[in-house]
Structures are given as C-alpha cells and as structure tokens.
Automatic annotation (TrEMBL):
Descriptive protein name: Class A beta-lactamase-related serine hydrolase
Highest taxon listed in the record's lineage: Bacteria
Ranges where the Beta-lactamase-related domain occurs: 55-378
Signal sequence residues: 1-29
Keyword match Signal: yes
UniProt-listed PANTHER family: BETA-LACTAMASE-RELATED DOMAIN-CONTAINING PROTEIN, D-ALANYL-D-ALANINE-CARBOXYPEPTIDASE/ENDOPEPTIDASE AMPH
Keyword Transcription belongs to the record: no
Keywords, alphabetical: Hydrolase, Signal
InterPro entries: AmpC-like (IPR050491), Beta-lactam-related (IPR001466), Beta-lactam/transpept-like (IPR012338), TAT_signal (IPR006311)
Single GO MF descriptor: hydrolase activity
Length: 396
C-alpha cells in the first residue's frame, strides 16, 4: 500500500469536511443517536470504531442538520458501528432509529439485476438477446437493437422517461403507465446502443418488465419471493403511498426549499410516487441491506459466486459527471452495481438519491469484507462522509 497516497487522500477528505471532527463527547449529545453494535472479528481500525474519526464526522453532519438517517459499518457480517440521527416524521416527532425504513432510491437497481441474473442462470433470459425477444410494443430501433446486457450496463441509450405519475393510484398503473411512456418515446435510443454510457432509469424499468415476462410472475412478487425473502429482508419492500403515510416506522423524505432552506415533507406533495419501480423507490433498513450483500456474496443464497461476480464486476466506464464528488481511482458500472477502485481496492454497491428527500449509499469491500450503509431522508449529498468511510477502509 502506498502510505503517502493514502495520507494525501485522507487529508483531502478531511478538507472536504470543512472542519476537524467534533469532540467525542458531542457524539452522545447529538439528537437521535443509537448505540453502536459489537465489533466484528479481525482487525478493526480505531478510526472506524465507536468514537472514532468516522463516528465523529457523522455526528458533525447531523449536528449541522445536513444528515438525517442511519449509518452502519459491518466487518465480516458483524456490525461495528450503528448510528441513527434526526427525525423520521417531524410533524409527529418520531425519531429515526436503526430499524426505520428509508427509501433506498436507485439501490433498487441491484435488486432488479439479481433477478435478471437468476433468470439468466435458468436460461430464461439471454443477456445478449434484444428487448423485442421478451416484450412487444417497442419501435424496431429499440426492439431489434437494444440488448439486456446494454440495459444492465446503461449503454442502451434508453434515457429517462420523465413520466408524470400524479394520476396513477395503483401498482399496476405505475408499472404499466411508465412502460407505456417509454414505449411511446420516438427519440429512442438516444445513441447507437453499446457506444456510450448514460445513466438510464428507463432501461431498468424495461428490465423489470423482462423479469415479469421471463418468469411469468408479477415483478414485485418475484422480487419479494426470490430476492428479499431468501436474503432475510423481511421488512424491505415496495411500500405504496398509503402505506408510507400510515406507518410510524417509515422515514418521510424531506425536500429542501431552494430559497428558504426549509425542510418540506414530500409525502404531502401531489407528485410523491404511489410506489417504487424496478429502477428505484423500495424501502429498506441499513441492517437488511447488509443482509442483501451477505446473501449475494457470502453463501450463494441469491446467486452462485460466478453469477454474483459477473454482476458486481465493472463492464462499462462511467461518465465523468457521474458522482464527481466521490474520491476514487476508477469508476465502472457492472450489472446493476456501481464499481469503483480506491487505494487499489475494489468497491461495489450502489448509490441513490432524489430531490424529494432521498440520499443513500451501499458499499461492499470484497477483499476486506466490509459493508457500509448510509440511508438519509434528506436530499443533501453527504459525499464527504462516504469519502471518509471509503478512505479509512481501503487504506488498511
């Protein structure tokens, strides 16, 4: 390991934090802090332990009200640090807890990818077959040219649908309505498939429809029975708007008013989605996302290791504008997984975010067996915390 490069990287991260970490006593004084879990096996750097550098930095962000949510660090499947800050529902004074469910945004793409890979293993999906092999209603320019592989890697040119879902008030209307909007676009693909990388929510919605067609099961039912349940993700799910409003254990997302900075409960807005889609919008906890990674990489619960490795290794170089504030050496996209390198270590997982009040990150460090999860019901980007976590883990 190049210690000079590691120290420089760490100094850059601390500079982005804007100040030295707060004193250890302030950690306990911050509102909504949960206790830390027991340390895992093996060497745990002091900077990652309770009261360490990362813990203090998270507390600082929470004290400044730029972070509201939960963080979890786990080594070899054992929680090392667990913290919860802020409010899940400000109007009802319900605090965030470690078992609070948060919207995980585009982390859903990893769930959809696992479903595709499961069906590919069963020879029900051919990764190099075109969209028209499984779905009808698309123009020939899409149906006959865009492949499953290209959809999984954001190289199919399918763009973002921009569907207005305010009139949709059922799961079926959201799924079918979004698919119809994508089918109706006359400008797709936006570039020759396979020649560029451009992030595409539409592409992953199409993948969800392909999962439905290939499995002959409803997409949401398939994900529940073949991804969430086997992984032990009992509470993770695609909750509907009425379910979110009725629950006390689901964090309300808070958008930030661009002029006043006021936190606005997005569940009160008429554009709050009725339900998530294959591209994003399920709800989960930090612990259950850790379980997802363990089920994917630990024991073959979700996929044999060959297929899990196929999904989580980089295949396309991400565009330079994708998460430019994250420290890294290289940035790639696998099959529904973001793949980066830092300090010559590979990190795979996914980020998620929305201006309605969602910001999250799931990181897995395969060589070192660390998992980091951060879930927030603010739209504020807390990338300096992610950078610090990644730097402290990879410099080992």
């Amino acid at each position: 390991m190049n210690s000079q490069r590691s120290m420089a990287s760490r100094r850059a991260v601390l500079a982005m934090l804007g100040a030295a970490p707060v004193a250890a006593g302030a950690v306990l004084a911050a509102p909504g802090v949960a206790g830390a879990g027991a340390a895992g096996q093996g060497h745990i750097p002091k900077e990652l332990r309770p009261g360490g550098e990362y813990d203090k930095a998270v507390a600082q962000f929470a004290a400044e009200d730029t972070f509201s949510g939960t963080v979890l660090l786990a080594h070899r499947g054992k929680p090392v640090l667990e913290r919860a800050y802020g409010m899940a529902d400000k109007a009802k004074s319900i605090p965030n807890r470690m078992d609070t469910l948060f919207s995980v945004g585009s982390i859903c793409k990893a769930f959809t990818s696992v479903a595709v890979m499961q069906l590919a293993r069963q020879d029900k999906i051919d990764l190099h077959a075109t969209v028209g092999t499984y779905l009808d209603g698309f123009r020939a320019e899409v149906a006959d040219t865009v492949t499953v592989h290209q959809l999984l890697t954001h190289t199919g040119g399918m763009g973002d649908h921009g569907a207005d879902s305010r009139a949709w008030d059922s799961v079926e209307e959201v799924f079918e309505g979004t698919l119809d909007v994508i089918r109706g676009r006359q400008d797709l693909p936006e570039f020759t498939p396979g020649t560029e990388w451009r992030y595409s929510n539409s592409g992953f919605h199409i993948l969800g429809a392909i999962v439905r067609a290939a499995s002959n099961e409803d997409y949401y039912k398939y994900i529940r029975e073949h991804v969430f349940d086997p992984a032990g993700m009992e509470r993770t799910g695609f909750y509907t708007r009425p379910q979110v409003l009725a629950a006390d254990d689901i964090a309300h997302p808070y958008a930030t008013h661009p002029q006043t900075g006021e936190r606005i409960d997005s569940t009160t807005r008429d554009d709050f989605p009725f339900v998530g889609t294959p591209a994003g919008g399920a709800f989960s906890t930090a612990e259950e996302l850790m379980k997802f990674i363990r089920a994917l990489h630990e024991d073959g619960t979700l996929l044999p290791s060959a297929f899990a490795d196929l999904a989580t290794n980089g295949k396309a170089v991400q565009g330079p504008d994708q998460r430019p504030d994250l420290v890294r050496q290289n940035s790639f996209y696998g099959y529904g997984f973001e793949v980066t390198t830092l300090n010559d270590r590979r990190i795979c997982g996914h980020s998620g975010g929305s201006s309605i009040g969602v910001s999250c990150m799931l990181d897995f460090h395969p060589a070192l067996d660390w998992v980091s999860v951060s879930l927030s019901n603010y739209s504020d980007r807390y990338w300096p915390l992610v950078n610090l976590e990644r730097t402290l883990i990879t410099q080992q």
